[in-house]
Automatic annotation (TrEMBL):
Gene3D superfamilies: 5'-nuclease (3.40.50.1010)
InterPro entries: PIN_dom (IPR002716)
Pfam families tied to this protein: PIN_4
Ranges where the PIN domain occurs: 112-281
Protein name: PIN domain-containing protein
UniProt feature, compositional bias: Polar residues: 1-25, 173-182, 306-325, 395-408
Ranges of Low complexity composition bias in the record: 75-85, 92-109, 423-440
Lineage: Eukaryota, Fungi, Dikarya, Basidiomycota, Pucciniomycotina
Chain positions covered by the region annotation Disordered: 1-34, 58-109, 173-193, 287-335, 371-448
Length: 448
């Protein structure tokens, strides 16, 4: 009994301790705690829903930048509107599909411009820029040459100044981002956009000696020297000719030809790249002229004194003289012809522009300016006529008060005594500006 009594008090505290632990772990669910848990769950769900909505809005906004996202889960009442929108979507891309399909098939040809085009054929470049059919490249050598020619005599000085002003405007327009997203048609050459000299020299094809050659003084043999010493006679040195090599290319042409070769090699498969040179029909006289200013920098758009060590093409074949007055008797050569021949030797494609093309470009510019003037006149007169029609329909008695001041101004010179016949000649404000407009068109021939 004692053991049982002693065991009872030992067995009783064990279940009481386990119950206290269970009660401590499992708290009673009160209505306040239930409300709190529900509020926390609702707040968590609301936060997740807001995040998902933001992600969906961002995705839909990105899609709207390119195309309208498809609508779904619409009631049957809006089925007609959805069909109309689909028909509009199908009809709208049709006109845009034709140019997009034509652009990759036929890329714009590349035109590398020479200095002769900017000085003597600027209207042709203006026409090309307005048409936007070509990708016009201005080499860095051409820009530096124009800067050097600013100190030239007045006939060339005015043309160079006009060309530089036009180039500045085109460079500013090319830097602006285009609304259509297309590449600009007027591009200046970058520093790395030119082929290396080794790559250019590999393409050189030497012409035959009959076409071009370089003279050199043939060194006499030892026997000939002994004979000359014995005889004591000063004989003229023997002159011989050798074929051209790639290093005979003048340094003034290398940068331009390297630029033209770069765009020719890096063009697309169906894209043409040409070096554009202007050829004048006037033949340069063979009479020498005294050099003016610094003649060390030679310009291939103009003329250059032909040195005895330079190449001798068939058309300018002239033997060098042994006297010291060679510089005064040097022959003036058209450098555009020389540049074109060197470009052909390096297999560079050339486009020759003649004065006939220049006259066509001038006529095109005149017609374009006339169209612009007509459009401006229509925009000026049509809104004025609508205002007069609205005022006359609203208040017929007020037409005389509004129209007589403007009509009497024009009637003082033409018809002072017949004010009622003036309404028939209402559109005559353009008559006195006809002569001045023609002069303005001629003055704005080289200005867009």
């Amino acid at each position: 009994m004692a053991n049982q009594q002693d065991g009872k008090p030992n067995d009783q505290p064990a279940p009481s301790s386990s119950r206290t632990k269970q009660q401590a772990s499992i708290l009673p669910i009160t209505p306040d705690r239930e409300k709190m848990s529900r509020a926390l769950g609702a707040a968590f769900l609301q936060h997740k829903v807001q995040q998902l909505e933001r992600n969906v809005d961002d995705l839909s906004f990105r899609r709207d930048l390119h195309q309208i996202p498809p609508r779904s889960h619409h009631p049957p009442a809006n089925s007609n509107h959805s069909s109309r929108n689909q028909s509009k979507k199908k009809s709208s891309p049709q006109p845009d599909s034709t140019p997009s399909s034509s652009k990759p098939s036929s890329p714009a040809p590349i035109k590398v411009i020479d200095t002769s085009m900017l000085i003597h054929a600027l209207p042709i470049l203006k026409k090309w820029v307005r048409e936007e059919k070509f990708k016009i490249v201005i080499p860095l050598d051409v820009v530096s040459e124009l800067d050097f020619l600013k100190t030239s005599p007045p006939p060339i000085h005015g043309l160079v100044r006009e060309a530089t002003c036009w180039l500045d405007k085109q460079f500013q327009n090319s830097r602006k981002p285009s609304s259509t997203g297309d590449q600009p048609c007027f591009i200046p050459q970058r520093t790395g956009d030119e082929s290396g000299w080794e790559e250019l020299s590999r393409r050189f094809v030497a012409p035959p000696l009959e076409e071009a050659s370089i003279p050199f003084i043939k060194a006499p043999s030892e026997d000939e020297e002994h004979e000359r010493v014995r005889d004591g006679e000063d004989e003229e040195p023997q002159i011989d000719y050798r074929a051209l090599i790639s290093t005979d290319l003048p340094h003034q042409y290398r940068s331009l030809l390297q630029c033209a070769l770069f765009y020719q090699l890096h063009a697309q498969p169906k894209q043409e790249s040409e070096l554009v040179i202007f050829f004048s029909d006037k033949q340069i006289s063979s009479t020498p002229a005294a050099p003016q200013g610094n003649t060390q920098h030679n310009h291939h758009h103009y003329h250059q004194n032909w040195k005895p060590t330079s190449t001798h093409w068939k058309s300018e074949n002239s033997l060098p003289q042994g006297s010291g007055n060679d510089q005064e008797e040097e022959e003036r050569v058209d450098k555009t012809v020389d540049l074109s021949r060197w470009a052909e030797r390096f297999e560079i494609k050339i486009q020759k522009v003649h004065p006939a093309d220049l006259t066509q470009a001038k006529q095109w510019i005149r017609s374009y300016n006339d169209k612009l003037k007509q459009q401006q006149q229509q925009q000026q007169y049509h809104p004025h006529s609508h205002r007069l029609g609205s005022s006359s329909s609203s208040n017929p008695h007020a037409t005389s008060n509004h129209t007589t001041p403007t009509r009497t101004i024009h009637s003082k010179k033409s018809l002072p005594g017949t004010p009622r016949q003036i309404p028939a000649s209402a559109p005559k404000p353009s008559a006195p500006s006809s002569s001045s407009s023609a002069a303005a068109v001629d003055k704005r021939l080289f200005v867009w």
